UniProtKB/TrEMBL annotation:
Lineage per the UniProt record: Bacteria, Pseudomonadati, Bacteroidota, Flavobacteriia, Flavobacteriales
Entries under SUPFAM superfamilies matching the protein: YVTN repeat-like/Quinoprotein amine dehydrogenase
Species per Swiss-Prot/TrEMBL record: Costertonia aggregata
Protein name, per record: Uncharacterized protein
Domain of life: Bacteria
Keyword Signal among record annotations: yes
Keyword match Signal: yes
Position of the signal peptide: 1-17
Alphabetical keyword list: Signal
Length: 460
């Protein structure tokens, strides 16, 4: 009996250790932040639908076109219900999602011109059903008229003008000490107080002529380190509680341009005493998974030929190629768990053709050999979204278009890549996922943004 309990403890400990340290300042929600956490791993412990489920599809119309890539779940209301928050190029909105109802219940218009800025690709969920978002030089704090009512009206609580030196806000992130970090399109990184939103510190990323630093989001770890990719380099900076200081920088030929960035948001693998990596996919042809030592470089690491010593692995993604001239082959960020990481070929945001580029990849870091190995590769399927991995279902989820011009929703086995679910959605263009997050709800449903509405797939 003692041996069994010891084995059970070890198994539970290993499973728990696969998840990164929990950020205590993220709200209590099924999906509280972009990529579902500060490490930007895009995984969830919640189960989603699986083989044998009868699936029902529903739409919820949003205020305007050009819906952003991100949806987030709120904290629970007193009745146990949640709301889903999102944004368009002009509005912030929230929707309710229950067995009998799926619709947007409130929205608030911020910008009357949808072409001025792409509103809030990384808005921030705060406690008490508050949301922080932005335009070029303002922060907007939203709340609800009645925080006990899921259908309550959205209200603007506060509008804050940023200093004139801060222009073109682009990203928001909650740090592990509770502070809020932001990025601007000119490479300026700042930290603000989460209570009164006063500016604490800024850091200007040194940029060369033509270098861009705003395309991707960024990851943060529990030591205050921020990991940021530009079109020309990978960098790490640290918020030490008082100021932002540079840690390291690696120049790379990512193959990026104004539209591509380098491909993906940095994804962090490993924590505690294990190997610690930051991974991105570049825009080369074929694309490559690039892994960097994000902390101290191991003393016995000899490095890779022709690469900076901080580069831990360069793994080619076979068959990957841009669907269009101005896009990266792998544009959407990976999903990860433990030392496993998966990504997919991208077919763009202008609408998928009936002859999409195919490719889904699962890789794994091997500490014993210091290699990032390709575990499996599917060259017959297209997942056009930001992938999500459910540990409870042990499956990756996403959608794509097949040669019959129908959209399909899939789940793939994490270990083998085998198809577990293949749900035909139809030819309706509302099913087209332009590269957005797919969020798993407490009812095993998955919701994502199309360019015109929300799409929910729910087991009956």
């Amino acid at each position: 009996m003692k041996k069994f309990l010891l084995l059970l403890y070890l198994i539970c400990h290993v499973v728990q250790a696969q998840f990164p340290p929990e950020n205590p300042h993220l709200v209590n929600s099924p999906f509280p932040a972009v990529h579902n956490g500060s490490y930007r791993q895009g995984n969830t412990s919640l189960p989603a639908f699986g083989p044998g489920d009868t699936l029902k599809v529903a739409f919820a119309e949003t205020p305007k076109d050009r819906v952003s890539p991100w949806l987030l779940y709120s904290e629970p209301y007193p009745n146990g219900q949640y709301t889903i928050w999102g944004s368009t190029s002009t509005h912030i909105f929230k929707a309710i999602s229950t067995k009998n109802e799926f619709r947007v219940v409130s929205d608030y218009q911020i910008d009357k011109n949808p072409w001025i800025n792409d509103l809030s690709w990384s808005f921030l969920m705060l406690p008490d059903h508050q949301v922080l978002t932005y335009d070029d030089n303002h922060l907007f704090l939203f709340g609800e008229e009645d925080i006990s009512d899921p259908k309550s009206k959205i209200v603007l609580l506060k509008k804050m003008t940023m200093p004139k030196s801060i222009k073109s806000l682009s990203k928001l992130c909650r740090l592990y000490d509770g502070s809020i970090a932001f990025a601007a399109r000119d490479g300026l990184i700042g930290v603000i107080d989460a209570k009164d939103f006063t500016l604490k510190a800024t850091y200007q990323i040194p940029l060369k002529r033509g270098e861009k630093a705003y395309h991707n989001d960024y990851a943060v770890d529990d030591n205050g380190n921020l990991f940021i990719s530009t079109t020309h380099k990978m960098i790490s900076i640290q918020w030490n509680g008082k100021t932002v200081v540079p840690k390291w920088e690696v120049s790379m030929d990512f193959g990026g341009n104004r539209f591509q960035g380098i491909g993906t948001t940095p994804t962090l693998l490993g924590s505690g005493n294990g190997d610690k990596l930051v991974c991105v996919v570049d825009s080369q042809k074929p694309a490559r998974m690039l892994s960097f030592w994000r902390d101290e470089i191991p003393t016995d690491w000899k490095g890779l030929k022709d690469f900076d010593k901080r580069v831990a692995a360069v793994t080619i993604l076979p068959g990957s190629r841009p669907a269009r001239k101005f896009m990266a082959a792998v544009e959407n960020s990976p999903t990860a768990f433990g030392y496993g990481i998966a990504c997919a070929q991208y077919n763009g945001f202008l609408g998928q053709s009936c002859d999409t580029k195919k490719g889904v990849y699962k890789l794994e870091w091997r500490p014993a050999t210091n290699t990032m190995d390709l575990i499996w590769y599917r060259d017959d399927i297209n997942l056009n979204n930001v992938l999500v991995y459910s540990t409870a279902s042990n499956a990756i989820y996403g959608s794509g278009k097949e040669n019959d011009c129908n959209y399909y929703y899939y789940s793939l086995d994490w270990d083998t890549g085998k198809t577990m679910v293949r749900k035909q959605l139809g030819t309706d263009k509302r099913f087209d996922d332009p590269g957005d997050a797919n969020i798993v709800g407490p009812d095993r449903s998955i919701t994502y943004n199309s360019k015109k509405c929300l799409v929910r797939i729910r087991p009956e």
